[in-house]
């Protein structure tokens, strides 16, 4: 395990030894890692195991972005989500757990994640059925209850924007201002604007200027305050 040469937040640093301990304890089917949210594009600062195919320097996931943006998971803003179902691009079924790590000001600064590959157990071993029990995530947090793993945060952003446009249910060419406001609102709620370059990319996708996106965000803030 290598840790990049950058200043690591003390609250994250103390979890680094656990990454290797957990991965080696549970073997080749277990992946443990730490995300540092100070750099979403290159958030993985420590990783052991090769379940999702990621490495140090790869970026944040859509699920982590969404929880970070909301300040915690669910209505209670929880820090710990355990034993939720995940699926990799190559079809592995995972049992995942995430601990969101906060600083002394109670701000989320990163997360500690565990991904355990259940695929072979689910296919061949009914004896360990209890170990393989999974729960789907609340659909408010993830439309499919599945986290999307990628080494490229740009792919995550594209997926967030695509899903926001799909949710409106109209071609961009037919969207009115209110439709585009909804797209901006969804992207914001999913944490899309925490990714560098999101303003320009979304502006291009919905055919407005970057200044229009800023205006939409200001308008949404005013509406939220009025509520």
Which terms summarize this structure?
globular, Beta-Lactamase, 5-stranded antiparallel beta sheet, 227 residues, alpha+beta
Query: Structural class given helices, strands, pairing?
Result: alpha+beta
Distance between the termini: 48 Å
User: The CATH topology of the largest domain, please?
Assistant: Beta-Lactamase
CATH level 1 class label of the largest domain:
Alpha Beta
Describe the sheet with the most strands.
5 strands, antiparallel
Write down how many β-strands occur, each being a DSSP E stretch of 2 or more residues. 5
Nearest-angstrom radius of gyration?
19 Å
Q: What letter string, H or E per element, gives the SSE order?
A: HHEEHEEEHHHHHH
Helix content: 25-40%
- Seen as an oligomer or otherwise, the chain set is single chain
If classified by CATH, what would the architecture of the largest domain be? 2-Layer Sandwich
Shape: globular
Estimate what percentage of residues fall within beta strands. 15-25%
What do you see in this structure?
- It contains 9 helices and 5 strands, in the order ααββαβββαααααα.
- Strands 2-1-5-4-3 form a 5-stranded antiparallel β-sheet.
- The radius of gyration is 19 Å and the shape is globular.
- The protein is of the alpha+beta class and 227 residues long.
- It has 2 domains: 133 residues, Beta-Lactamase; 69 residues, no CATH class.
- About 2% of the residues have low confidence.
């Amino acid at each position: 395990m290598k840790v990049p040469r950058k200043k690591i937040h003390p609250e994250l640093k103390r979890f680094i030894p656990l990454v290797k301990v957990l991965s080696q304890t549970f073997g080749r089917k277990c992946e443990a890692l730490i995300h540092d949210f100070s750099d979403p594009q290159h958030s993985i600062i420590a990783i052991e195991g090769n379940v999702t195919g990621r490495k140090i320097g790869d970026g944040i996931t859509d699920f982590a972005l969404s929880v970070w943006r909301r300040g915690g998971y669910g209505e209670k803003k929880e820090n710990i989500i355990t034993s939720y179902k995940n699926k990799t691009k190559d079809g592995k079924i995972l049992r995942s757990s995430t601990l969101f790590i906060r600083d002394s000001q109670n701000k989320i600064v990163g997360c500690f994640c565990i991904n355990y590959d259940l695929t072979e157990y689910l296919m061949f071993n009914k004896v360990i059925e209890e170990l393989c029990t999974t729960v789907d995530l609340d659909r408010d947090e993830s439309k499919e209850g599945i986290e999307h793993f990628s080494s490229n945060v740009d792919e995550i952003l594209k997926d967030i924007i695509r899903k926001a446009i799909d949710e409106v249910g109209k071609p961009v060419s037919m969207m009115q201002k209110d439709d585009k406001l909804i797209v901006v609102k969804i992207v914001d709620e999913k944490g899309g604007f925490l990714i560098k370059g999101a303003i320009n990319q979304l502006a291009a996708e919905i055919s407005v200027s970057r200044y229009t996106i800023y205006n939409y965000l200001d308008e949404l803030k005013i509406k939220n305050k009025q509520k």
